[in-house]
Amino acid sequence: MKKINKYFLSLLTVTTLTFTGCGNQSTTEQKDTTTTQQTEANNPETTDVEISIKDTVNDKEILTEDAKIDKNGLKDYLEKNHKAVFEDGMMTELEGIKQDEKEGQYWMYYVNDEMADVGIGDYVPKAGDEIEFRFEKM
């Protein structure tokens, strides 16, 4: 009789541990799913900004547009959509207008009316930013 009780008690213990382990796995999967959903909500796939391109040397407004900048960043967006050319990390051409070192004419960019303090490749846009590219004489 004692052998049957020990056997039954052992079987009951193993069964309880098995069900408990399965229950924890489900809870962990639910937590992981919730965390993933929160991360996706906090990190949208694109960031909405306004982009303006101006040639202040020739007093021309080239364009203003609403843009969606994806995870590849502003530099990639400009290369794909506005014929931007970069050399050594600096933008040397945009919309077919090339910088002219002899004349001291360069492309500069501003975020929310302030000159950017990082290069285009390092800039991380925030929703609602107004980004203005100006061809200027220095």
From TrEMBL:
InterPro entries recorded: Transcobalamin-like_C
UniProt xrefs under Pfam families: DUF4430
Domain Transcobalamin-like C-terminal residue range list: 75-137
Stretches the record annotates as Disordered: 23-46
Protein name in UniProt: Transcobalamin-like C-terminal domain-containing protein
Protein source organism: Anaerococcus octavius
Taxonomic lineage from the root: Bacteria, Bacillati, Bacillota, Tissierellia, Tissierellales
